[in-house]
Amino acid sequence: MNLLEVRNLKKYFATQKAVDDISFGIEKGTIFGLLGPNGAGKTTLIRMITGIFFPDEGEILLNGKPFSVTDDIINIGYMPEERGLYKKMKIGEQALYLAQLKGMGRKDAMDAIKWWFERFEMQSWWNKKVEDLSKGMSQKLQFVSTVLHNPKLIILDEPFSGLDPVNSNLIKDEIFRLSRQGATIIFSTHRMEQVEEICDQIILVNKGKKILDGSVNQIKQDFKENLFRIGADSTIDHLQCNLFEVVRHSTEEILLKLSPDTTTNQVLSHFINQGIEVHAFNEVLPSLNEIFIKLVEGTPLARQFEAKA
Amino acid sequence: MNKTWLIIKREYITRVRNKTFLLSTFLTPLLFIFIIGAVVFITVKSTKMEKVAVGDSKGLLKGFLESGKNMQFEFIENADTALLQKDYTAVLLAPGEGINSSDRFRIYSRKNLNVISESAIQRQINEAVETRLITSSGNISKGAYDSIRQQAKSVGLDNKVLEEGSEMKEGNAGVAYGVGYGAGFLIYITLFLYGAMVMRGVMEEKTNRIAEVVVSSARPMQLMMGKIIGIGAVGVTQFVLWIVLIFALSTVLGAIIPGSVMEQVNQANQGGAMAMQNQSSEAIMKLAQTKQTLSSVNWPLIVGCFLFYFIFGYLFYAALFAAVGSAVNEDPQDAQSLMFPITLPIILAIIIMINAITQPESSMAIWSSIIPFFSPIVMMARIPFGVPGTVPYWQLGLSMAMLVAGFLFTTWLSAKIYRTGILLYGKKVTLKEMWKWAIRKS
Questions:
Q1: CA-CA distance, B327 to B334, in Å (whole number)?
Q2: Count of A–B CB contacts within 8 Å?
Q3: Angstrom distances, CA of residue B242 to CA of A215, B25, B301
Q4: pLDDT of A60
């Protein structure tokens, strides 16, 4: 069963259709990538899922039941892109306050904070103020306060921005661990290499509409262009045939685009027949970055303001 | 409700623990007391012994100038300004004496005489001349005239206000004026002080980017009301502490300052030259009178109304301040221009109040004390003049009901602006847009 089910969600603002009829489902325990250019409507979509905004139309089902602002807040952990903390408040008190706001009891919250602070080696920070923390340190604190109450659905908007590689890995490992323990994670970012690394499933949103939905592998297959890389020493003369086009050629490596009917074996025999030693042959799948750019390019980055329909 | 309570608690505790709060709460009364102390000290210090030589060969002032603790008169034959070179601080010359060729009394000194001494001398000269003229033309002895004057003094004017039915009550326009003015002004200051605090708090949450985190855990309305109530509680705490501290400190101060100093101050204020006995009895009479007029004021009613108008006036405006805070981005300049529509009615209210207090029953005073934008300030200025005398019950009731309704309305309106504004970054918001957010259906 899907943990989260979004059906025909719409949210129109006076100047634009921020979210225009988007539907998708997220399976329990998966890591889900929500992608899109700036101003695509990602934040509005997330704000509806977290109960900050009410949708104009459509429904959100959490665990098969309609989402309820009062009851489901405890089930969601949301780390917004624009995030911050109370600068003058002590770190321990701040974590406790945010956990209690989520609806945790004082004792449960304290236990969870202690457990997480120990895990991230933050115990000595308890009485420090946020203004004394570095950006990376406050990111860690924000992550902790997002997952402290053990939410079923964790929504992370650009969780790695401003983190060094060591801390990025620390958070990434936690994301994997939480996902293995059954938490469902929505991960929103512009960094495609992170999406390829982390996400099982993605949707791509542009101009308020969903333009892509599927598993990372499936999408790559869908967008492949029959490109193959051959590691072989060759000259231009060896490449004259109608099986493929040469995209790039150097003395050690050739990038080929196969014609629609050509099989890989045909290509290989073409080279073997000419007595060329092939030491590598593999298919080149497009990166998500390329797919993203290809789909979004041509649409203006900042959305045009359109009159409300 | 539980979450609102958490938010209230956080707002309250972080503010009350703040150093600035502690400093301002404990230093303000100290400063207050210090200023009073300084004034007392300076008055005492500056009333040194004045030795006045009097040149009065015609005996116009004979028997009238009484030497007191701070002033000593000496009648000297052929007094002249040359006496200033000796140890006289001033030389008083009757008309035609020495260098005084005018037909008025003249006093010569090297330094300016202090105001108190000068007015004391003036009063005594007036009395002397008046008595002399009357006794000489009306054939009355000086003693007889003195007793007549004493009688006249004790008659004076008493202000009695007729309450409903036949009950008589001591009234005092001066006290009502003072109390009303003070209460109205206090509300004016607190509206600005704590309203701005709410606005800054909301701005802080927005610029710190904590708002979205909190709003994903609690409703925006809870966050806004939590902040408003939390800061209101801080305000009430501060007031209570101030009252307690000022009371305690003045009691302590009263005990520390020796009685003789107080006496001296009293004397300095009264003019100094009067006979001690006469003076102290008059002072006691005055004190008793003040006590009586102060007790004529209906304190429980005024304090009760003050609390009501303080709390609901604050709530009425704090919601608006919160709405403005939510619309402001980093630039504090924006806050200034967006705040204008809120500060305008508050300033207008204080102007109306200054007017209304002189005519508490004018239609302007009545209506503006019912309109919620002005009522906290204007009504507080009118109430000390008497309920139901000056302010009928229907006016008070209507004013209170309107204020509560107004508070509900501004809160509802502000919540809609707040909800949108607090999550909107990087865009300069105009008043027109805020209005659109407010009237939009949700």
A1: 9
A2: 61
A3: 66, 7, 21
A4: 92
If asked whether residues B196 and B313 sit together in one domain, one would say yes
In-domain check, residue A100: yes
State chain B's mean pLDDT as an integer: 80
The whole domain housing B211 covers 2-38+168-439
Interval B24-73: pLDDT, tens:
888 887 887 788 788 878 777 666 677 888 888 777 777 777 777 677 88
The answer to whether A84 contacts B208, with C-beta atoms less than 8 Å apart, is yes
Q: Return the CATH number at A59.
A: 3.40.50.300
Both tokens of residue A202?
Answer: 């993605």
Instruction: Indicate if B282 and B429 belong to the same structural domain.
Output: yes
| Residue A253 Cα, gap to closest chain B Cα (Å) | 49
d(C-alpha B303, C-alpha B305), whole Å: 5
Nearest to A82 among B6, B209, B217 (CB): B209
Which among B77-81, B109-113, B122-126 has the top mean pLDDT?
Answer: B122-126
Q: What is the pLDDT of residue B273?
A: 41
Residues of B in contact with A102 (CB under 8 A): 217
Per-residue pLDDT tens for B236-278? 898 888 878 877 877 776 676 655 555 555 555 554 444 444 5
| Contact between B6 and A101 using a beta-carbon 8 Å cutoff | yes
Question: Do A229 and A216 lie in a common domain?
Answer: no
- In the prediction, which pLDDT does B47 show? 62
What does the pLDDT read at residue B230?
A: 95
Tell me the residues of chain B between 9 and 68 that have a Cβ less than 8 Å away from chain A.
10, 14, 18
According to the model, what pLDDT value does residue B158 have?
63
Domain boundary among A174, A204, A221: A221
Spatial distance between the Cα atoms of B385 and A145, rounded to a whole number of angstroms: 56
Structure tokens at B131: 């008595």
Give the predicted TM-score (pTM) of the model.
0.75
Q: Is B160 a member of any domain?
A: no
**Which pair of structure tokens corresponds to residue A184?**
């469902």
Of A185, A206, A221, the one marking the end of a domain is A221
Residue in A84, A97, A101 closest to B209 by CB: A84
Q: What is the mean pLDDT of residues A144-163?
A: 90
Q: Is residue A301 part of a domain?
A: no
| Contact assessment for residue A222 and residue A214, using Cβ atoms and an 8 Å cutoff | yes
Q: What is the pLDDT of residue B319?
A: 93
Is B55 found in the same domain as B95? yes
A 31-70 → B contacts, CB under 8 A = 47, 50-52, 54, 69
B275 and B267 Cβ atoms separated by less than 8 Å: no
Option in B6, B14, B212 nearest A83 (CB): B212
- Percentage of chain B lying above the pLDDT 90 cut: 21
What is the rounded CA–CA span in Å between residue B249 and residue B98?
A: 53
Same domain? B186 vs B52: no
Minimum mean pLDDT range among A28-42, B292-306, B357-371 = B292-306
Residues B360 and B413 in one domain: yes
A83 to B210: CB separation less than 8 angstroms, yes or no: yes
d(CA B240, CA B234): 10
pLDDT digits (tens, 9 = 90+) for A246-262: 888 887 888 888 888 88
- Chain A residue with minimal CA distance to B10? A97
The CATH number of residue B149's host domain is 3.40.190.10
CA B376 to chain centre: 17
The C-alpha of B201 sits at a distance from chain A's nearest C-alpha, in angstroms, of 11
The interface predicted TM-score (ipTM) is: 0.80
Contact A73 B436 (CB under 8 A): no
Residue B442 CA to residue B437 CA, distance in Å, equals 10
The owner of tokens 């992170």 is A194
Burial of B36 (0-12, 13-18, 19+ CB in 10 A): middle
The Cα–Cα gap between A173 and A192 comes to 18
Is residue B357 in some structural domain?
A: yes
